[in-house]
Each structure stands twice: as structure tokens, then as C-alpha cells.
Design brief:
This protein has 7 helices and no strands. The chain is mainly alpha-helical and about 150 residues long.
């Protein structure tokens, strides 16, 4: 198995399960209702805001992989659109599953040599660093979502 295929598997595992940590985004969000997703717990980000934030960066990576352009801005990654219904929430979740699979399929097609090339601009390091970092970022916010869910049932 190539390194690119292993990275793609790691992306899928973080989103859909099968990783050794036994926690993934899809099974964590499956039972979150819209009202819970938008609920404010203490001063923490809402589950909807965290989910949007993760989806935003998947969009950014798709553009990088397809067009070699970095168009994202960190400050925009928290501009969560209004979640006014369960349909809005379900649409957000559906979009993140589609984007995760798209990213994984794009990564697994890369030759391993591409992984050591610069990620658009040398100041961002290599493609490998950024693809692996994206997965670390998913787990970081997934941990927050898990904790917020636990706080909601207290």
C-alpha cells in the first residue's frame, strides 16, 4: 500500500470509523439532534460550529488538490451559517461526509513523490505534513465534540 493510500485511509477512518481509537466523526454525530448541535454549552463552540469548521477546511483542501490554489482564510472557518432547522443540520453532516470521501479519493490517487512536494507555498511545508495535519485537526475537534456531548447529558 502506498503512503498516499495510507493517508487516504486515515482520513476515511477519522470520518467513518475503523481506526484504533474507536471514535470517528460520523458515529459521534449520528445521534446529535439539530437542537443539540446549535446548543451553547458554557463558552464552548457549538457542535454545529465545530462541524462547519471541519467542513470548511475540507473545502480548502479539495481546491488545493484539484487546482493547486490555497483560497481559505482561517477567520472564515468559523463563519457558521445559521442552522435554523434539522434539515440544515442534516445537510451540513451530509456535506462533510461527501467532502471527506472526495479528499480521500483525491489523496489516494497521488503518487507518493507528490507528498514530499510543497503544499502550494513552501512556507506551509509539504503535502504530507498538511494532509496528516488535517487528520490531526479532525481528531482534535472530534474530541471537543465528544466532550460537549457528555456535558449536555449532565
Amino acid at each position: 500500500m502506498t503512503i498516499a493510500k495510507q493517508l487516504a485511509k486515515h482520513v476515511r477512518d477519522a470520518h467513518f470509523g475503523g481506526n484504533w481509537s474507536t471514535v470517528d466523526l460520523k458515529s459521534t454525530l449520528v445521534d446529535v439532534k439539530w437542537e443539540e448541535a446549535i446548543a451553547q454549552v458554557y463558552s464552548l463552540n457549538s457542535i454545529a460550529a465545530l462541524t462547519f469548521h471541519l467542513a470548511y477546511y475540507l473545502d480548502v483542501l479539495i481546491v488545493v488538490l484539484e487546482e493547486n490554489k490555497l483560497t481559505g482564510k482561517d477567520e472564515l472557518s468559523w463563519n457558521t451559517p445559521p442552522m435554523e432547522s434539522s434539515e440544515d443540520w442534516e445537510n451540513l453532516k451530509g456535506s462533510i461526509w461527501w467532502k471527506a470521501e472526495k479528499i480521500a479519493s483525491l489523496i489516494e490517487k497521488l503518487p507518493d513523490e507528490k507528498l514530499i512536494e510543497n503544499f502550494v507555498d513552501p512556507k506551509y511545508g509539504t503535502n504530507y505534513r498538511n494532509f496528516a495535519g488535517m487528520t490531526e485537526h479532525i481528531y482534535y475537534h472530534l474530541g471537543q465534540i465528544v466532550l460537549i456531548k457528555k456535558l449536555m447529558v449532565q
